[in-house]
# Entry
Amino acid sequence: MKTFGLIGFPLSHSFSKKYFSEKFKKEGINDVVYQNFEIKHIDDLPSLLDSYPELHGLNVTIPYKEEVKKYLDDLDHSAEKVGAVNVVKIIPDGRKIGFNSDYYGFRTSLESWISTNVSNLKALILGTGGAAKAVQVVLDDCNIPYSNVSRNKSKADYDYYELTENIQIVIDHRLIINTTPLGMYPHINEAPHLPYEIFNSDYFLYDLIYNPETTLFLRKGKENGANIKNGLEMLELQAEKSWDIWNE
Ligand code: NAP
# Structure
């Protein structure tokens, strides 16, 4: 049976197994299985591949998105530019190619949300982790200028203190993308420190978080009339992109 799966550690809260199992059931795909492979070290990957010669593809999650690259033969544009891999395609001759489907998920969802006639849009990316890197590459490729915001000014263009002290910075950036875990379940009463009172219908607030559906960041923006989007579409698009990569 064709096997697909997820490597990472730990995997108790992972979305992929449930998503793919439901997809296979709903779409009547009977000859495949999706399994979690909770490996304690990335160096366990070669023996995993030896034990499962029927593996056709893997998703990769924390903490192996970067380390997995040493076991791959090639990277596509998305993984090369983001510097992280969350999808591995195993081709019949045994070669393993890395992709970054967060790149595709974020790009497709952003492009369908921000219509091309929204011009002069500049973005603020909140947070400087792995998800922020995928967002940066998409914005580069879409020619949307951006600045980074971090708790630690030495890692970014601005810190949160500057954004509330000098609201002109926020006024100049109408697309604000939260890539921090602030507001994610169960910490639903947290939100990035921003001058929320200035947001109106000219602003676009995108939160990569999908649980809860409406984070405090999005709720505070919406109360003032901002356009909002959560991370659910990105999550589903990146999963579907994995499936396309494995089957193309
Ligand atoms: P991460 O590396 O753990 O954190 C991202 C960044 O957030 C950190 O580098 C940090 O940047 C900032 N941060 C962390 N804790 C913070 C706090 N208490 N206050 C303010 N800033 C804080 O996570 P990630 O892997 O990039 O993922 C980030 C979020 O995106 C998660 O909520 C994840 O679930 C979501 N995500 C969603 C999708 C999707 O498909 N929708 C895909 C990937 C990720 P600084 O140190 O520079 O402040």
In short: Residues 232-247 form the longest helix (16 residues).
